[in-house]
């Protein structure tokens, strides 16, 4: 079998994965050319913006790395056809959200963008092309991709070349807000596949900066399943600790103490044990639903129920926080101003997909509250896109987006901290109390507050997981 030499790489999808992943690849492999393509022309324009504060995604350290390689060996463009034609290796990094309608709606992943990418590759590729699944996919999707590609497998291209393909699975494990570090120093790189030379070609790219022993090789199906399972395990830890946070509030135990006591057991470990208003982000819920769909398909009802309970606890946690805010504010928040600190699903990202803040805000708006929202990286348009209520509905509450903590706090009855941005950890509670309405409350779901300062400033104080 011939050894594949990779000189040109194409990535389909310039989103939260395609963008940062290719930026790191381009920096680490200066002799290879990377082209990132997307259907969304305004996203491509934003990646090409001279003003690095206007990139389509916010990720610490990304702008600096981009500057090093953009228009040198990394290009963002909409010309899918030429980029595919020229590529020796193509990453598919397109979105795979939960299906909204049709068979499997609400659980299965919608694979229409994957199929469209595979069809584009089948049509335009030349010679031998290594196709890499970077998107998170249901187990055995590689089979579908192969079938689509095989339709053109024996086709001779205009220049008399035989088109051939090998398909690899190379799931991405980066977490937003920490993407650059995750990509530069991953715990492991996973490559699933059958064609030894194709695996070697991808491994050689990674070996530019990653030790060989961190590169795990499996069959295609183990690789696809491992990605879903890893996200399910991570989410399961959060639901577990969130369930314990509720017990703490009833019993006088303190979740921060319990978290440390549990996490110092080396078999359990301390990471991913932070209680929260629920996990958000584009993937945990989607990937667990995907796993559940798979279990149901294979008639593994008990397994499906087990993973469903992780999602149930997550929804319950969001709902119990909204209820608690209403109860503490005398059972009525109608026309009361409440400051919402944070709207992104976690700190250090502008991503709000599936953010717990959305569900919590929607519930408070249903109760008639007037919300004043501040997040350092989320703008008005994004909030408008996310909330059910558009401020034109008379019997519901209203919302506005502010530019500072002080602006949200002015005349408000309560502050609800939902995202753990660093600037929420430095609030001068004494100053803030002067502009709020008494009796004023802090509801902290992210452990940002200095409790002593808050109490000294006269706040009523509630913290997740403490009574
Ligand atoms: P995203 O929505 O930010 O980006 C996907 C991009 O693909 C979009 O810009 C879309 O326009 C483009 N696209 C779709 N079909 C196309 C086509 N046929 N041709 C060209 N462009 C096309 O999504 P994302 O967050 O980058 O996630 C991508 C995949 O990676 C998903 O499967 C996700 O589960 C997985 N993943 C995401 C993360 C994360 O942190 N966001 C981490 C690991 C894995
Ligand atoms: C997660 C995984 O961590 C990545 O490995 C994976 O690649 C990615 O999903 C994906 O497949 O999309 P991400 O969603 O970006 O990454 O961010 P996380 O740090 O995992 O946080 C997810 C959610 O869990 C956030 O809402 C966060 O606030 C919450 N969380 C996290 C907690 O509530 N407690 C914790 O201890 C950790």
Give an overview in words:
With 467 residues, the protein is of the alpha/beta class. It contains 17 helices and 14 strands. It has helices spanning 18-28, 41-47, 62-69, 80-86, 112-124, 141-150, 179-184, 196-206, 220-251, 255-263, 284-297, 301-328, 356-366, 380-386, 405-409, 429-433, 451-456, and strands at 8-12, 33-37, 74-77, 89-92, 128-133, 164-169, 189-192, 215-218, 337-341, 370-374, 398-401, 414-417, 441-444, 460-463. The strands form 3 sheets. A 6-stranded parallel β-sheet has the order 3-2-1-4-5-6, sandwiched between helices. Strands 11-10-9-12-13-14 form a 6-stranded parallel β-sheet. Strands 7-8 form a two-stranded parallel ribbon. The longest helix has 32 residues, at 220-251. Bound molecules: nicotinamide-adenine-dinucleotide and uridine-5'-diphosphate-glucuronic acid. Nicotinamide-adenine-dinucleotide binds next to α5.
């Amino acid at each position: 079998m011939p050894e594949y030499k990779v000189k040109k790489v194409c990535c389909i999808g310039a989103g939260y994965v395609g963008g940062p992943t290719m930026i790191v690849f381009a920096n680490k492999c200066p002799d290879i050319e990377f082209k990132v393509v997307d259907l969304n022309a305004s996203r491509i324009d934003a990646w090409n913006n001279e003003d690095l504060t206007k990139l389509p995604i916010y990720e610490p350290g990304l702008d600096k790395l981009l500057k090093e390689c953009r228009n040198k060996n990394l290009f963002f463009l909409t010309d899918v056809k030429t980029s595919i034609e020229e590529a020796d290796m193509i990453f598919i990094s397109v979105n795979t959200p939960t299906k909204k309608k049709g068979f499997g709606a609400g659980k299965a992943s919608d694979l229409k963008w994957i199929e469209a990418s595979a069809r584009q590759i089948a049509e335009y590729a030349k010679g031998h092309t290594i196709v890499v699944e970077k998107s998170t996919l249901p187990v055995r999707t590689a089979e579908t991709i192969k079938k689509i590609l095989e339709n053109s497998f024996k086709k001779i291209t205009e220049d008399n070349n035989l088109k051939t393909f090998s398909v690899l699975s190379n799931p991405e494990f980066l977490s937003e807000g920490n993407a650059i570090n995750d990509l530069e120093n991953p715990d492991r790189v996973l490559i699933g596949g059958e064609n030894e030379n194709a695996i070697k070609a991808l491994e050689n790219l990674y070996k530019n900066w990653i030790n060989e022993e961190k590169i795990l090789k499996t069959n295609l199906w183990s690789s696809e399943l491992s990605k879903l399972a890893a996200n399910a395990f991570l989410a399961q830890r959060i639901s577990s600790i969130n369930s314990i946070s509720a017990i703490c509030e009833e019993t006088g135990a303190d979740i921060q103490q319990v978290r440390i006591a549990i996490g110092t057991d080396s078999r359990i470990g301390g990471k991913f044990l932070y209680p929260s208003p629920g996990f958000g982000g584009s993937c945990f819920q989607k990937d667990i639903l995907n796993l559940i769909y798979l279990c149901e398909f294979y008639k593994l009802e008990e397994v499906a129920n087990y993973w469903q309970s992780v999602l149930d606890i997550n929804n319950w946690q969001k709902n119990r926080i909204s209820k608690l805010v209403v109860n503490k504010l005398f059972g009525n928040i109608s026309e009361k101003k409440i400051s919402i600190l944070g709207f992104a699903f976690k700190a250090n990202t502008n991503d709000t997909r599936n953010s717990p803040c959305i569900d919590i805000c929607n519930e408070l708006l249903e109760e008639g509250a007037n919300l004043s929202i501040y997040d350092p990286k989320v703008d008005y348009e994004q909030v408008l896109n996310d909330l059910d209520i558009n401020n034109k509905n008379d019997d519901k509450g209203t919302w506005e987006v502010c530019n500072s903590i002080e602006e949200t706090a002015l005349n408000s009855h309560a502050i609800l901290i939902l995202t753990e941005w660093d600037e929420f950890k430095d609030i001068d509670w004494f100053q803030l109390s002067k502009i709020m309405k008494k009796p004023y409350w802090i509801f902290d779901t992210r452990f940002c507050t200095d409790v002593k300062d808050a109490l000294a400033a006269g706040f009523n104080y509630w913290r997740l997981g403490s009574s």
